């Protein structure tokens, strides 16, 4: 017979419930007979072999901390262990500033640069835009980059480029998940313009200076997952551009498109985004409610 332990506040022989700091399993509509067991899981943890087997069949490993695990009707599940973000158009609203900075440099040099040409490459790395300025040597390109940076930082300083709610969302999500960032932009823009408390939410970051093959190659995302030691089917990536979708799909990572940046909802859906959200608040809600294992 089980005896109650005054020190532990529970009966001896019972398994420990989930750690109080870990979000518990959330339950969607379930078939008759499963709902009772699911409610017991929420309140009791793994208290007997029947419930332990019930969770094990759905991929839950009892000894590990569970960050977010949603049991959906039909048993479709996605165990989320990390979230990877894009930067421009997701956390900061600065794409137009980058475009206008390049246009101002072109004006200084007397070059007829079409704004559409810059915009079509706005999600590319800086070096991928070099050809727009013609046949130039490295010294000339370095001068263009310096001028462009000066114009960008001047415009960024004149207003708040951080997307409303971005830092709050990062702080909230970082309490339950490792967060990482993958961007084709330069690290110096992130370090100079993004708030420190937001930067500190990221466990790993990867910028154009760190990449041999930038987005839409899968290499940057796979590299950041290797650093996090997270399997690709245990994370999601959120970005605003078609190149983000292409990178995530090639890497085999669930991709959430967001409508605060470069491309439209139609563009992102046609590229193959698994989900579309309007903003970071909606994204945080999606994470809290659980991402189905299947697209839909």
Protein traits:
six-stranded parallel beta sheet; single chain; alpha/beta; 296 residues; globular; Rossmann fold; 11 strands; disordered N terminus
Relevant CATH superfamily of the largest domain:
HAD superfamily/HAD-like
Strands side by side in the biggest sheet: 8-7-6-9-10-11
Q: What's the shape?
A: globular
- Rounded mean pLDDT score: 79
- By CATH, the topology of the largest domain is Rossmann fold
Strand content: 5-15%
**Assembly of the depicted chains:** single chain
Structural class from helices and strands? alpha/beta
The CATH architecture category of the largest domain equals 3-Layer(aba) Sandwich
Protein described:
The protein has three domains: 17-77, no CATH class; 82-92 and 163-289, 3-Layer(aba) Sandwich (Rossmann fold); 95-157. The longest helix is centred in the middle third of the chain and has 20 residues, at 138-157. It is globular, with a radius of gyration of 23 Å. 40% of the residues lie in helices and 13% in strands. The strands form three sheets. The chain has a six-stranded parallel sheet, with helices on both faces. It contains twelve helices and eleven strands.
Give the arrangement of secondary structure elements.
Elements lengths: L3 E2 L4 E2 L14 E2 L6 H11 L4 H8 L11 E4 L7 E2 L1 E4 L9 H15 L5 H6 L17 H20 L8 H9 L4 E4 L4 H7 L2 H4 L2 E5 L12 H10 L6 E5 L2 H10 L2 E5 L6 H7 L3 E3 L2 H10 L7
Parallel strand pairs: 3-4, 6-7, 6-9, 7-8, 9-10, 10-11
Antiparallel strand pairs: 1-2, 4-5
Helix pairs in contact: 3-5
